Amino acid sequence: MNILTLNAGSSSLKAAFYKEQDGVLSKLASASLTGVGSPHLSLQVDGECIDISNVDLTDPAKIHAQVVELLFNRFKLQDDSLVVSHRVVHGGGIFSKSEVVDDEILEQLKSFNSLAPLHQPFNIRLIEQVREAHPESLNIVSFDTMFHAGQTALETSYALPKSIRDMGIRRYGFHGLSYAYISESQQLAINSNERTIALHLGAGSSACAMMGGKSKASSMGFSAVDGLPMGSRTGNLDPGVMIHLLREGMDANQLETLLYKQSGWLGLSGLCSDMRTLLESDLEEAKFTVDYYCYHITQEIGRLAAILGGLDRVIFTGGVGEHAPLIREKVCNQLEWLGLAIDSELNQCNQIEIATAESKVRVQVVPTDEEWMLAKYATALA
User: Fold this and answer.
1) CA within 13 Å, CB half, 282
2) Which of 200, 220, 207, 226 is nearest to 304 (CA)?
3) CA diameter of the chain
């Protein structure tokens, strides 16, 4: 079985080509498109820069479609023997497992666009484009929300009237593909009592409490703007602030732009939404932003550890989690009360195991692989 995985966002596209044989997945190629909507558009396939100077830049959706066609040709993909596995951010309260795409499912997914405006519309548009251009291919969707589908009502409910909750207003949780990979790759299900907090840290950041590899609680709620402060997203924010801004004349679209695109690290620092740049800066605003980020990560770990009744393992993943030793150091130094301690040298070298021998909590740095999870989910349905 040949599987193409597609993970589309507003400014990027990740793709990978797998072959499944006798239950074994082998990655044959991977591609990464970055800088969509900016002057720095770039496509790399297996580390090689590919010329895309002839791509129509008028619309991000058109860029995604043209690059996918380029990949179809480069990988010599045949529609009738291909499964295309798509990441979709929001499955609402309807989808708790992967699904084969049909017209009805697509219409249901479109109704969730407002819940994840940075990703969902691009996910859906790309599915439509692939189905139109390659009608013989089998398209499958997997959702970032589905890993958290087993959380209890105590975790997912808001203190709102039932009539509002019945509209689907609840906590969902995100980054589920990443957490599913972490759970599977680290075999967390082997010990049903192991208490793990995984931290997916990057321009989109979240935390997830797992018991025996299953999601018990997470930092993101109804939308992917909730929880930890992120590249340009606020994270936790008193709803009273939003009411105040609306009364001051800001409309819903302006508020959405503020919360999703002008806040977080960008808003705090006044500089940028790139953590690497902030870590390298000597400006006080950058230092404050880094400290604020780590403070709120630590705060969330405390909440999740209380839900789990203790802590056995912390796993850092995502672009920042995997590659920013200073962030890990700042976070872990505030967790000594949990009996957690890291080895400075191991941490600086981005080793997988970074806890000291005396630490009561295991601390790991584990690269995530959402594309592998997309491929694995596809094999179960194809």
Assistant:
1) 0
2) 207
3) 61
- Residue ranges per structural domain of the chain: 2-149, 187-365
The structure tokens listed for 87 are 């990441």
Phi-psi region of 242 (alpha: psi -120 to 50; beta: other; left: phi over 0): alpha
Using a 10 angstrom Cβ sphere, with 0-12 exposed, 13-18 middle and 19 or more buried, the burial of residue 237 is middle
* Nearest Cα to Cα of residue 213 among 178, 195, 190, 189: 189
Q: Which of these, 241, 234, 257, lies nearest to 117 by C-alpha position? A: 257
Q: 2-149 has which fold?
A: Nucleotidyltransferase; domain 5 (3.30.420)
pLDDT in tens, 217-258: 999 999 999 999 999 999 999 999 999 999 999 999 999 999
Instruction: Judge whether 144 counts as a catalytic residue.
Output: yes
Q: Residue 363 corresponds to which amino acid?
A: V
Residues counted in the chain: 382
Pairwise CA distance, residues 29 & 5, whole Å: 11
Among 51, 59, 144, 226, which one carries the catalytic annotation? 144
pTM exceeding 0.70: yes
CB 224 within 8 A of CB 116: yes
Contacts of 154 (CB under 8 A, 6+ apart): none
- The rounded distance, in Å, linking the Cα atoms of 202 and 205 is 5
Which CATH number describes the domain made up of 187-365?
3.30.420.40
pLDDT per position as a tens digit, 49-91: 999 988 888 888 889 999 999 999 999 998 888 999 999 999 9
Fold match, 2-149 / 187-365: yes
